[in-house]
């Protein structure tokens, strides 16, 4: 990718001279054009989103107007006439930004008092921050659980709130993004109570329609600045497909060398050559594995080099995270294997190369990660190492899908009743809810409030709704969508806390017999106690990793929209999914060879969510030459591949969605394939799939048809998490079936119009207090229980 020249501008006249001087002292003589334009909008009182590439100076675009305003506020009698709240999706990013703000504002003296307020902040510092801090950096979780419920203690801060900065706002998508949208509405409501109306300044990676996404997130009109005027060094971008091995997987399928092993080799080679590199990997376990393999390989070359590679992921203790960040900043570390906890904006300048082990799920994330290399304007290398799955294989063979396509739209749904209900309770606990507040929280409120009253969570008194319980309303929901208390991973022999795992992922990641990695050490899970939220582990060195398998059944609760696809039909609506982790596979390290399968006895979990599904008729099956013997395998193969390809069309992850295919579904009475959101009430992914169904299923058919294997492999129709052991699957049948289905597909514009005309239900089917935490599977045979995400 060729280098790009930068375009300079001048700061607006209204920026204080002291701030311009401080910026110059930091070595920045003139702003880029997009920085100056964003600062102008901020000073005009207009909310604005800056959506430009990595290392384009987005932070300075909002910092300059913020610092200028804080300097004005410092002249007030109380010394705090203006305050700013900064929100980051991760603690690491907030800590890094706090460092940057303090360095930049150092010449301004005590006028700017920046401080991080999160779960790691010592209690003795918190009171000082509430009383005197005027630039407070936190995360949405702390805002939701700590700041908003205690708003009287923050009254002087909120009264003077001029700006709310939302960094890396493209990460607020799906259920997490929907929760954050409601937290921001609660913040705006409390600010109004204290007489403040803050301007929102958002920073985003390059995104499609950033102002539309920002408006959905904040509930306010937002201007956009998306013309990137910063210079860029040349970026060499390699697409790397691991070679086939002599091993065979399930059903004799050919197996490629794993992306983890290839990325570890690349990180080792780069470290030996003194190239400062980061290898991004999607899972915590993958980050640990790449780090361990690299360290072992480096020790064979030079023992001292092994200490210069480490892993960085979520779930570490705060002091471990801070030490790694410092080592990376100082150059003590040459190579790092990291999850996306490091992807977000932390300034690690001087990187020469980025290795991406597996497509990160969205083009936005891909460019965000690739952009970490060459941050100081020099040339850089980025390598995308493909995993053995349909989406990665499709992308390395169709580079135009990466390089010639715009990044995805951010998908979020603040009106999801499962998201909205607990935030209405939290808002009522902060200040009684009045009719005037309902416009702020959206049209779904009206139907939900009577249900919350019936559940004895809220009570109507005169003109307002009040929270009635003793417990904290903010504890009703985990805004990360984890659904429940995190499971603590504890070393059995010592009682030492190693870290935590989300409750929703516990059944599939820390079940009995699972391999758990932490800081390069390998542990085996001895027991999982979901009641006490504890997994006991002991150190071990098994020659394998583990992968959980599950089964899924599904029933249709309500069809919102239905359109004909030839004789078949494409539908969107509400479903109930019952999922159960039933076993786990042991796979040999490096090669991925399956060593065996062990049964598990874990309870089923029930989920009400949104789904897209399609049906085919007898006539269509005849035209596709699909007889009853291959029907199940053809549907199953099409379902697996369609789930693998959906992240290309919606900002989701393969693990955010699930699917089921059934030769005769009891609700549709036809062969049916379902793809559903893996979160209560939905996350907007299935709706996006419905809107883009023709393009999505065309790419799915193309991915299966172009794969070189004979009967199916992980690169096309096999799934790593299939509860049926990838049986039955019929590759050629899936291609013929999708060909016939797509012959009847309407243009996508028509699909959009149909869905616009549909009447979504907008609420749960029954009062909240009647919703069971876990209920028996829906009636009817479970057909092809296939892919399911970790249960929420």
Q: From the structure provided, what is the oligomeric state, counting identical versus distinct chains?
A: single chain
Radius of gyration from the alpha-carbon trace, in angstroms: 26 Å
How would you characterize the largest beta sheet?
7 strands, parallel
Strand order of the largest sheet: 3-4-2-5-6-1-7
Number of domains: 5
Summed over residues and divided by their number, the pLDDT gives a mean of 87
Principal-axes shape call: globular
What is CATH's topology name of the largest domain? Answer: Rossmann fold
Second CATH tier, the architecture of the largest domain: 3-Layer(aba) Sandwich
DSSP summary: helix tally: 26
Question: Which stretches are low in confidence, meaning pLDDT under 50 for 5 or more residues running?
Answer: 750-785
Distance between the termini: 40 Å
**CATH-defined superfamily of the largest domain:** P-loop containing nucleotide triphosphate hydrolases
The top level CATH class name of the largest domain: Alpha Beta
The level of helicity is 25-40%
Compact description:
The protein is α/β, with parallel strands linked by helices. The model is unreliable at 750-785 (pLDDT under 50). GO terms for molecular function: 3'-5' DNA helicase activity; ATP binding; nucleic acid binding.
Description:
This protein has 792 residues and is an alpha/beta fold. The protein has five domains: 17-225, Rossmann fold, CATH 3.40.50.300; 235-404, 3-Layer(aba) Sandwich (Rossmann fold); 417-475; 483-542; 549-744, no CATH class. It has 26 helices and 30 strands. One of its GO terms (biological process) is interstrand cross-link repair. Residues 39-225 form the Helicase ATP-binding domain. Residues 266-418 form the Helicase C-terminal domain. This is DEAD/DEAH box helicase domain-containing protein.
């Amino acid at each position: 990718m060729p280098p790009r020249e930068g375009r300079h501008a001048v700061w607006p006249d209204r920026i204080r001279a002291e701030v311009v001087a401080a910026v110059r002292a930091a070595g920045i003589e003139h702003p880029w054009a997009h920085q100056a334009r964003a600062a102008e909008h901020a000073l005009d009182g207009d909310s604005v989103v800056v959506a430009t590439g990595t290392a384009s100076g987005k932070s300075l675009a909002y910092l300059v107007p913020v610092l200028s305003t804080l300097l004005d506020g410092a002249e007030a009698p109380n010394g705090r006439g203006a305050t700013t709240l900064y929100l980051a999706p991760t603690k690491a990013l907030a800590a890094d930004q706090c460092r940057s703000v303090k360095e930049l504002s150092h010449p301004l003296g005590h006028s700017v008092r920046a401080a991080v307020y999160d779960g790691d902040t010592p209690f003795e510092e918190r009171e000082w921050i509430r009383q005197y801090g005027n630039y407070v950096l936190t995360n949405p979780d702390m805002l939701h659980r700590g700041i908003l419920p205690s708003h009287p203690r923050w009254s002087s801060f909120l009264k003077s709130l001029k700006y709310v900065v939302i960094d890396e706002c493209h990460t607020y998508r799906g259920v997490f993004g929907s929760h954050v949208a409601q937290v921001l509405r609660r913040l705006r409501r409390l600010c109004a109570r204290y007489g403040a109306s803050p301007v929102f300044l958002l920073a985003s990676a390059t995104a499609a329609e950033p102002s539309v996404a920002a408006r959905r997130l904040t509930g306010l009109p937002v201007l956009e600045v998306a013309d990137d005027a910063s210079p860029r060094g040349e970026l060499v971008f390699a697409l790397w497909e691991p070679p086939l091995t002599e091993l065979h997987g399930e059903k004799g399928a050919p197996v490629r060398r794993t992306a983890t092993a290839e990325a570890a080799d690349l990180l080792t080679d780069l470290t030996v050559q003194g190239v400062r590199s980061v290898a991004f990997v999607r899972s915590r376990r993958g980050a640990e594995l790449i780090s361990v393999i690299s360290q072992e390989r480096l020790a064979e070359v030079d023992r001292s080099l092994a200490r210069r590679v480490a892993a960085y992921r979520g779930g570490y203790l705060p002091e471990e995270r801070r030490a790694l960040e410092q080592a990376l900043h100082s150059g003590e570390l040459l190579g790092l294997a990291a999850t996306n906890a490091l992807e977000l904006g932390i300034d690690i300048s001087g990187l020469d190369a980025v290795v991406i082990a597996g497509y990160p799920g969205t083009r936005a994330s891909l460019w965000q990660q690739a952009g970490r290399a060459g941050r100081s304007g020099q040339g850089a290398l980025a390598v995308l190492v493909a995993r053995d799955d349909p989406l990665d294989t499709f992308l390395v063979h169709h580079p135009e899908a990466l390089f010639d396509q715009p990044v995805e739209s951010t998908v979020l749904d603040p009106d999801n009743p499962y998201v909205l209900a607990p935030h209405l309770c939290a808002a009522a606990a902060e200040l009684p809810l009045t009719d005037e507040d309902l416009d702020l929280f959206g049209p779904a409120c009206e139907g939900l409030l009577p249900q919350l009253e019936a559940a004895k969570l809220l009570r109507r008194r005169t003109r307002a709704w009040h929270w009635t319980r003793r417990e904290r309303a903010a504890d009703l929901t985990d805004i990360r969508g984890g659904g429940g208390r995190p499971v603590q991973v504890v070393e059995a022999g010592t009682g030492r806390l190693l870290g935590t795992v989300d409750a929703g992922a516990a059944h599939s990641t820390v079940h009995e017999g699972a391999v758990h990695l932490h800081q390069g050490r390998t542990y085996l899970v001895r027991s999982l106690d979901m009641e006490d939220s504890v997994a006991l582990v002991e150190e071990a060195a098994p020659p394998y990793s583990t992968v959980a398998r599950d089964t899924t059944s599904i029933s249709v609760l309500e069809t919102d929209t239905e359109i004909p696809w030839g004789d078949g039909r494409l539908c969107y609506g509400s479903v109930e999914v019952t999922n159960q982790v039933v076993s786990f596979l042991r796979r040999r390290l490096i090669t991925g060879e399956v060593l065996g399968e062990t049964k598990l006895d874990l309870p089923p979990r029930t989920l009400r969510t949104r789904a897209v599904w399609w049906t085919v008729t007898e006539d269509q099956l005849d035209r596709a030459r699909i007889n009853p013997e291959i029907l199940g395998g053809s549907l199953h193969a099409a379902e697996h591949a369609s789930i693998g390809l959906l992240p290309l069309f919606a900002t989701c992850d393969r693990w955010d969605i699930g699917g089921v295919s059934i030769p005769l579904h009891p609700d549709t009475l036809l062969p049916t394939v379902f793809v559903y959101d893996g979160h209560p009430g939905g996350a907007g992914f299935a709706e996006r799939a419905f809107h883009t169904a023709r393009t999505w299923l065309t790419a799915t058919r193309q991915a299966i048809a172009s794969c070189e294997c004979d009967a199916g492999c992980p690169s096309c129709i096999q799934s790593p998490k299939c509860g049926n052991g990838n049986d039955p699957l019929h590759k050629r049948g899936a291609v013929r079936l999708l060909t016939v289905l797509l012959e009847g597909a309407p243009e996508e514009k028509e699909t959009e119009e149909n869905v616009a005309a549909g009447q979504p239900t907008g609420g749960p089917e029954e009062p909240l207090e009647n919703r069971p935490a876990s209920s028996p599977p829906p009636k009817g045979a479970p057909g092809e229980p296939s892919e399911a995400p970790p249960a929420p």
